[in-house]
């Protein structure tokens, strides 16, 4: 049968608790649908950093570049600054492996507690296509007159035609497969070089997809519509920073912020893609076996999809929905069950 | 009695319909509380542009720099690009008059339709203190290899110590007068020069305000909390772009996006401050007398506050709340009354 080699990075905190549940469910999916996994466990984490002085070995990326995918838990530990934990592991993986699409499904699932009034399960179902390798996320910039009253900080955002076009192209193709509607977020009335550029590229590329209905939103209004009228969206394309904000906002609107998944995709498959839940390492609850594994498992379903195992992916999603409705539930969802109990229930529901 | 000279810029579209209602209510407030206004009407607008080739005369800013305040409706007309209508009028006023605070109250008012479940009037009451003169809003940048496949767009955000510090200082003073809680939004795990700088300045300035409880949020999580738990906030300080997004999002959460006010403040009063509703010129409904004047009138209440007429400001706010509950209402709020009917009702309710 088919065997997938997965670079497995549980990372820190609850990452170490939820990744095993993801593995449990995916192994079960493989058994049911005729494939298997080889889970290469990598200890890269803040713990690893405290011993080795780096988040991963210098040749770490080379060691995993031929894997079929990367399955990540969460990284981060109090006392280890972000520029170490993120720019030493997460962001280099996204960038070096050209995972230029950060895909975030926003769905109102049955049994989830949305803070919005008057929305029913099924009424919100869209996807955010976020740029994941360039743009506002940048360590480029300078501080002039440092340490004086005249101190001036310049931060550079960098957008390339290649980077913008390939993201938009992915978004349009996705819209063709979904409901044929795409909108993009910019702020061309304030950010006066890069955002009109985005608009121009989007309008140009839209011409190649006559079947897709497009609209342009200023990011401020778009954020407002996520709350006022989230049912109108299908595919939402945005830059790195804007997509980051919209992703968490969208997840909050559907009450799924603790269970939301994400896929960092290299669509052409030249490099492995990475799948990780949106939640962090949550050191405050680590060790108590109460972390909700659904975000990790849902990310696993996205990994199956990318590996071409669409049927297995759907089976995992159905099992997640079933457990969301019927339980068992971890404390964050109002239950009293453990991480493992939820993972097992999802595996069994399949 | 005291007389205030107000530079009055109705602008385009419904700006021309709602500004007269603002004037009506503020004149009434003056009559009741012993002061008066001189409303200097200025035709600066896209219409003006279509005749004169500029949004305002070259010496426009000099002509109003000694006014007590600026009362603006809305600018914008289909076909006139943003870089003309905004960078030709709105943004130069904000910048040249050092209106470095954009103040946006976020309040759940009685009678307003919030999209959030489980929130009661009074449970949301905070204020966004947005930087308004520098930061991400910028026309600085460059396009390398223009027109080729290697095209690379660099956009510069510029933050100064003076700009960041004075905004934070305003926010902390405001928090002292309110509930003593301040949070600020950054994205220091992604935007690696400017955002850690913001954090450092905020932490430093916090030391001068030991009575204020502070917290730092990444902008993505903060946006999520606006939806999940908006009751926790008191004063929210943010950069130009982040504050812009949060302002519309906050207004959407309280169902007030069509009636939200804003104040562009030069706190020391070296230059006039500007007061404008958040909504735009809405060309689609212009001419039908159905525009909601509440945003303009609420902005007028903020102007009274800034002019030192706190009692009159409160009276206007009470009258607005009264009409929000009892009507009359314009169509956007489910009623059938005209712009003028609502303006008159608020004037009378005082
Ligand atoms: C019109 C636009 C430039 C403006 C801004 O982004 O500042 C508006 O959205 C606002 O918030 O006042
Ligand atoms: C941790 C952080 C750098 C990251 C991001 O902003 O990309 C996270 O918020 C995410 O969305 O994956």
UniProtKB/TrEMBL annotation, chains A, B:
<keyword id="KW-0479">Metal-binding</keyword>
<keyword id="KW-0520">NAD</keyword>
<dbReference type="InterPro" id="IPR050501">
    <property type="entry name" value="ICDH/IPMDH"/>
</dbReference>
<dbReference type="InterPro" id="IPR011829">
    <property type="entry name" value="TTC_DH"/>
</dbReference>
<comment type="similarity">
    <text>Belongs to the isocitrate and isopropylmalate dehydrogenases family.</text>
</comment>
<keyword id="KW-0464">Manganese</keyword>
<dbReference type="Pfam" id="PF00180">
    <property type="entry name" value="Iso_dh"/>
</dbReference>
<feature type="domain" description="Isopropylmalate dehydrogenase-like">
    <location>
        <begin position="5"/>
        <end position="346"/>
    </location>
</feature>
<keyword id="KW-0560">Oxidoreductase</keyword>
<protein>
    <submittedName>
        <fullName>Tartrate dehydrogenase</fullName>
        <ecNumber>1.1.1.93</ecNumber>
    </submittedName>
</protein>
<dbReference type="InterPro" id="IPR024084">
    <property type="entry name" value="IsoPropMal-DH-like_dom"/>
</dbReference>
<dbReference type="GO" id="GO:0009027">
    <property type="term" value="F:tartrate dehydrogenase activity"/>
</dbReference>
